[in-house]
Amino acid sequence: MKRTPPCILLIDDNEHGLLAHQTLLRQQGYEVAIASSGEDGLAQFAKQSFDVVVTDYRMPDLNGSEVIAQIRSLNKEVPIVMLSGYVEKIGLTEEQIGADIVLAKGPEEDRDLMRAVGRLVKKKPQSEQPRTRKARRRRAGI
Questions:
Q1: Looking at the predicted structure, is the pLDDT value of residue 8 above 80?
Q2: Beta bridge partners of 54
Q3: How far apart, in whole angstroms, are the C-alpha atoms of residue 18 and residue 30?
Q4: Phi/psi of residue 124, nearest 5 degrees
């Protein structure tokens, strides 16, 4: 059985940061989908299965904690990374916003993001992560 690369959903209204993170993750072999708003990210999440979601906190339509809450209502198990420039300013924590990992934007964000995504993807072997809901149900014998 051919293994597909892990699929990451990036949600950020900052186009430069979004494209930079997309490039970085693709260079590491990940399949990457991007969304420039919380609403767009939720629409994509509803249509496709992702191995990890990475979202910004401060966005104009829905903030990151609202996006996370809606994603959790659809799938409680998907790992989520919150990446924000406001982590220290307003004290964002995993418990407060429901993310698995909260990372601060800054000089180490690329390295920290790669480590976080790598760690979360390793939680489940790829052979156990079918891409569609139908495939997941079939695999589970439902």
A1: yes
A2: 10, 81
A3: 15
A4: -125, 130
CA–CA separation, 55 vs 11, rounded Å? 5
- 122 CB contacts (<8 Å, ≥6 apart)? none
What pLDDT, on a 0 to 100 scale, did the predictor assign at position 54?
98
Is residue 45 within 8 A of residue 9, CB to CB? The reply is: yes
Q: Cβ distance 34 to 10 under 8 Å?
A: yes
pLDDT score of 137 more than 80: no
Residue with tokens 């829905």: 62
In angstroms, the Cα distances linking 37 to 15, 21, 50 are 10, 15, 17
Cβ-based neighbour number of residue 51 at 10 Å: 22
DSSP symbol at 3:
P
Residue that has been written with the tokens 């919380």 in this structure: 38
Alpha-helix residue ranges (DSSP H) falling in the chain? 15-27, 38-47, 64-74, 87-90, 94-97, 109-121, 133-140
